[in-house]
């Protein structure tokens, strides 16, 4: 994992002292700061309605902060057409509900929309769309009308549209919401491939177990502010989790229990499936872990 960034590196995008409210006297974010470093997998945790989506919309320039600054590669964002276009070349946001993002008649047309709007020549557009469809495993859906897609297929199409823009940072708002368990695992595998190919990933979730197994670091949105820490540290902070209206993650408790038995000190299952596999595996003496 790349959980620790080089202190001399400049984040791709950073927000500083952000204040934002939709209505007077009811702030959503207060003096919020967050830096997105190349190569990271960051999970933004918080309750529904806690400000995660607002933060994402501010990061991509869709909302204007009441106060504070957004920087791209260390340079303050200029809220001009050129400045915002450059920001969206660097950072793409995928919304929680794909129906808020899909509008073209077919999957191919939808995924090609961004590259076409960049003014790319047709061969480059075709190449980008082909790579994005393949990355999301939906090449065979290229000609499918978007309104006939399943929910999971719509999610993948929306993500493909963002991937086709070749952003350095891909921000996904509740990407696993509405997916069945197999769909969640398939999506996480796809995100792993995108990360391995060099994309910096940021997801929001209120699923602490997902954050624990997936991310290098977490940023917890609580009381309008952002608390960033390595995943092990943040998810062991019960006071912080309580203030963010989040429950504890089960995996750290399982690790503590396993280590407390005096065995399996090297085993750190991240999922229930991995835990069951560990319990079924014979110990060195031929007994099974489930014997304890």
Average pLDDT figure: 87
> Which sequence of SSEs, written as H and E, runs from N to C?
EEEHEEHEHHHEHEHEEHHHH
Poorly predicted regions are: none
Strand order of the largest sheet: 6-7-8-3-9-10
CATH top-level class of the largest domain: Alpha Beta
Cα shape: globular
Please indicate the count of domains: 2
End-to-end separation: 31 Å
Provide the CATH topology of the largest domain.
Rossmann fold
Major β-sheet annotation: 6 strands, mixed
Number of helices: 11
Residues in β-strands, percent: 15-25%
Helix content: 25-40%
CATH architecture of the largest domain: 3-Layer(aba) Sandwich
What is the name of the CATH superfamily of the largest domain? Answer: P-loop containing nucleotide triphosphate hydrolases
Task: Report the count of strand segments.
Answer: 10
